[in-house]
Structure prediction request, 95 residues.
Amino acid sequence: MPKRLYVGNLNYTTTEASLSDLFGTVGEVLSVHVVTDRMTGQSRGFAFVEMAERADADRAIGQLNGQVLDGRAIRVAEAKPRDNQPFRQKYHRRR
Prediction:
């Protein structure tokens, strides 16, 4: 069963290819997505990596959390499901 991971504290120059190579050392990587700013296209400093197996994801968390990549200690954790409520409805009540 595929498992999605959150990868934080990334250097703004870190690429999807370098993340794929790193996570490929602990298991099969299905996809990598570095989140970018819509206006500038610059990395926002975090990404999501989907591993093929749950065991691979657990191994990635254990072995890669805190590892230095491109000069920064990355944070690897299980990705939480996204809350799909629009921003306005979630944080602003109508009067």
Remarks:
- The first helix runs from residue 16 to 23.
- The CA atoms of residues 10 and 45 lie 5 Å apart.
- The mean pLDDT is 91.
- The radius of gyration is 15 Å.
